[in-house]
Amino acid sequence: MVIVISFASLGFWPILPFAGAELALLGAALYLCQSRGHYVEVISVKGNSVAVEKGRGAPQERWDFERAWLQVKLQSARINGHPSRLVLRSHGRQVSVGDFLVEEERRRVAQELQRALGAAGARAGGVR
Question: For 10-48, what is each residue's pLDDT tens digit?
Fold first, then answer.
């Protein structure tokens, strides 16, 4: 801003709107980055049900699945260099989770979910 004001005082005032637009775009980009930092995904495995909640700061969307029928799929990317997708699927419905994770973390979450679903099935007497 010091440079912009000094140029404007020298008579180059047409740069003021461009500097203002640049600051507005920078503010918008910072706001978008900050809001994405508050994105939350919560997966709850309780008894015979699995709930997936997604939202910014607080849950805004919710999916409920029956644990016995839930499939955890780690789909490899169709294009080399692109990330895989972790999908929870049951009865024709599916939800993608962990899209913001790196590949290693996504694999670890898939393993943890498989383990949690298997442990819940053992307690409930079901077969996975």
Answer: 998 899 999 999 999 999 999 988 877 788 899 999 889
Question: Could you read off the pLDDT of 75-108 as tens digits, one per residue?
Answer: 888 888 888 899 999 989 999 999 889 999 999 9
Q: Read off the tokens for 47.
A: 């008894």
54 contact partners, CB below 8 Å, separation of at least 6:
39, 40, 41, 42, 60, 61, 62, 97
- Is the backbone of residue 85 left (phi > 0), alpha (psi -120 to 50) or beta? beta
Report the alpha-carbon distance of residue 63 to residue 68 in Å, rounded. 15
